[in-house]
Design goal:
Elements (H helix, E strand, L loop, with lengths): L1 H18 L2 H8 L14 H7 L2 H24 L4 H16 L12 H11 L1 H18 L2 H10 L1 H8 L5 H14 L1 H9 L10
Helix pairs in contact: 1-4, 1-5, 2-4, 3-4, 4-5, 4-6, 5-6, 5-10, 6-7, 7-8, 7-9, 8-10, 9-10
């Protein structure tokens, strides 16, 4: 019972940490309401479109840190490999359904990378490289996310462990669900490339 309570409290803490709307706060400090500009998303891509390069970099770093911090927190308190990942996924849910934004939020890509950077560093690196390669070729941030996280369950098996496959699959499902509209726009040719404004 005590172990279950610990996991529950760590999951709640991870959700709260993930809920911190980094991009929104950074854009607001520049006098921009991110929810009313660009795509309306609170992630680094929309910050780049509406606020500039350095605010986007700070947003990216902040969102990555949220995910990494929650896995480190879980590890510090002795959570098992599986629950380390689950607690990390809770931070992704926090980012996507922020407690501070009436349960609205971002797409969870950077926070997912943060989770993976601690949970499975080699897989995180492979995921980032695959995202970059796709982005360089096609110039779509969303497509980079879909391709790189689509491969995540496979790369977890190839470069890490079957034991972490369930968490990898959870992250992939969350990413794809949050990118439903992007998938539709990619299919009908209306998705924005990075560097284009609405």
């Amino acid at each position: 019972m005590e172990e279950n309570l610990k996991i529950l409290l760590l999951s709640i803490a991870a959700f709260i940490i993930g809920s911190i709307p980094t991009g929104l706060l950074i854009a607001k400090s520049r006098g921009i309401d991110l929810k009313q500009k660009g795509s309306g998303n609170i992630g680094a891509t929309n910050v780049l479109r509406t606020t500039g390069k350095w605010p986007a970099v700070f947003t990216l770093c902040g969102d990555i840190l949220k995910g990494a911090a929650t896995v480190l927190l879980a590890r510090h308190f002795g959570a098992s490999i599986f629950y380390e990942g689950v607690i990390g996924v809770c931070s992704i849910f926090g980012h996507n359904f922020s407690l501070f934004l009436k349960f609205k939020g971002g797409k969870g890509v950077a926070t997912s990378i943060g989770v993976l950077s601690i949970y499975s560093p080699v897989v995180a690196l492979f995921t980032v490289l695959l995202w970059l390669l796709t982005f360089i070729i096609k110039k779509y941030s969303s497509l980079g996310a879909l391709v790189s996280f689509g491969f995540l369950p496979i790369s977890m098996i190839l470069f890490d462990s079957w034991k972490k496959f369930p968490v990898a699959l959870m992250i992939t499902l969350v990413i794809f669900i949050r990118h439903r509209e992007n998938i539709s726009r990619l299919l009908d040719g209306t998705e924005l490339k990075v560097g284009n404004n609405v």
